Amino acid sequence: MREFVKWCPSLNVRSYYGSQAERGNMQRDIMYDLNNVDVIVTTYALATGQKEDRSFLKKLRCRSMILDEG
């Protein structure tokens, strides 16, 4: 997240990481403001983990996805 603030401050970046309840709230917030979200940062484990997370991320219809386990 710090890298986006430093190198791409004009992008609207959202984090998608936390407890199941927190991610549910994040899903609603992201979907509500989807047209203004440029980047969503999450982990590989969340992107490939629970069905609810996979389903949510598929709904976004991203043009690209970058997964970095580091």
Characterise the protein shown here.
It is a single chain. This protein has helices at residues 2-7, 20-32, 44-48, 51-59; strands spanning 13-15, 39-41. With 70 residues, it is mainly α. The chain has a two-stranded parallel sheet. Strand 1 (13-15), helix 2 (20-32) and strand 2 (39-41) form a beta-alpha-beta unit. The longest helix has 13 residues, at 20-32. It is globular, with a radius of gyration of 12 Å.
Task: Annotate the secondary structure layout.
Blueprint (H helix, E strand, L loop, with lengths): L1 H6 L5 E3 L4 H13 L6 E3 L2 H5 L2 H9 L11
Parallel strand pairs: 1-2
User: Fraction of residues in helices?
Assistant: 40-55%
Q: What is the makeup of the main sheet? A: 2 strands, parallel
SSE order? HEHEHH
Main β-sheet, spatial strand arrangement: 1-2
C-alpha termini separation: 13 Å
From the helix content, strand content and strand pairing, which structural class follows? mainly alpha
Which regions contain 5 or more consecutive residues with pLDDT less than 50?
A: none
